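Input.
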Amino acid sequence: MFHIRYDEPGPTPRLTRGALHRAAAYFRPYWRDALWIVLCILVGALLGLIPPLLVREIIDRAIPLGDTRTLFWCVVLMIATPALAGLIGVLQNYLAVRVGQAVMFDIRNEMYEKLLAQSLRFYTNTKSGEILSRLQSDVGGIQGVVTGTLVAVVTNVLVVVTTLLVIFSINWQLSLLAIGILPIFILPTRRVGQVRKRMTRETQERVAELTALVQETLSVSGHLLVRLFGAREYEARRFREKNRQIQRLTVRQNLVGRWFFFFLLLFASVGPALIWGYGGWLAIRNALTVGTIVALVAYLSRLYGPASALVNVHVDLMTAGALFDRIFAYLDLDEEVAERPGAATLTAPRGQLQFDDVTFAYEPGKPVLSGITFEARPGELVALVGPSGSGKTTITYLASRLYDPTSGAVRIDGRDVRDLTLESLAGTIGKVTQESYLFHASVLENLRYARRDATAGQIESACRRAQIHEVIQSLPEGYETVVGERGYKLSGGEKQRIAIARVILKDPRLLILDEATSALDSRSETLIREALAGLLVGRTSLVIAHRLSTILQADRILVLDRGGLVEQGNHAELLARGGIYSRLYEEQFRSGNATDASEQIFEDAGPIPGGP
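Output.
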């Protein structure tokens, strides 16, 4: 019917009434097409009943009576009937595919919008391959549900019902005999169907593992890691082992099918033999015609195959139920960072940022920030310093509302960020990180991501201020040059300057820099710092500072350690205070190269001496 991917073994899925009604709701808008599909199936089933009757007419009447007219029309109808059934089948398939694609379109859009609404926590805790599997493979399986499971069920039911009506109208004794031997086909079919279903599931699990391995090792980052660590043979061996498992399972699966069809062909001779035996005895006694026997034998194939398929219909429906359960699991995800009803739009923002007794934990009971309180006024450059893991990046996440605080409040212009619309909040904040992300698109498309309506002049101006315009112009296709996956066609400094140009183009009131110049050479760093100096005027700037040059420029320095704000003030004030910052400065910068801005000091220092 169709295939779905299971990431790990689990219990047999159950199709609940609630899930069934919920799944049916997605098909409800297309009920007219569904009715046409059922009508096509019914007409096709009725047309399939005609050829055996024509054979009976030829054998019992046309040939014995020499009726060439009847023979001619029977032959014409034997050709026309399958042709017409085929045309109706094409229409049926078109309608089924259209319904399946329409439902997939609706669900995939809904799921994508739901995923866009998830917080950063969701993406840090979920494998990207799992997300893609739900969005592509699972939603894609809906087409199989429509064109496979649902259509097959309706088709088999109508074929069985119409066939039974016809054969009982022809001869009820032979019809009872035909029904009596159905268990010979049904019982083996059910058993083999269960075995193949289980083996198919196991095969899909191995295929999922192989897909994950391919995705990890054949991406740009994965390939670089494999080459740098000389792991080609190791990864090739892992691939061969998983590929071999799939090979063995597939062979076993097909072998089970071959043995099943062997016995099915053997049993298939039993039904016709009994019909010929009993029917022939009736024909000898002139109680039945030869044409009727031939017609009944022809109807057996229309009866046994669909009847056997219906035995496993519950398995197919349960599998479809499992597919929708996986889809609904994502559609039912809570939005951790959601926009409140009636949220206000932040108009004419000034960029004032306040943290009011903020505590935050990624995991319950394990706070990474505790009681953080500070204010950054418009136009101020506030530097965050401290050892790795002290909470600097987490503060920038909370300021951008990528997470909500566990307690306390983050405010912009005196408004709790949770009371603001996400769109207006995003329009107020710009951020450049150490590792800038670029889409696999042109330079121009990556720049316009910050401002869709930007003119060519505005884009060029932003790039000139970021000292990247000349570099872009030298590329093979200028601004239309595709940068490659994650921007790998560009150097680290070039990517960083494009990211800075993107933020300049956005023109935010609150600027967050995670040491945005760290990937640049000394000359480019100086030019970018000059460009940023103009951009920072009148704007709040929150900077994770790794370098002395950044710290010296800061209006205020926030010293973090173990999730707490241990000191704050400007460089001179903190040195004069003789506290933690002063001792750290003396330990790290007393050598003659202390003014060298290329040293990353505060990030790599251990816990600050005297810290909490």
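The longest helix spans residues 68-116.
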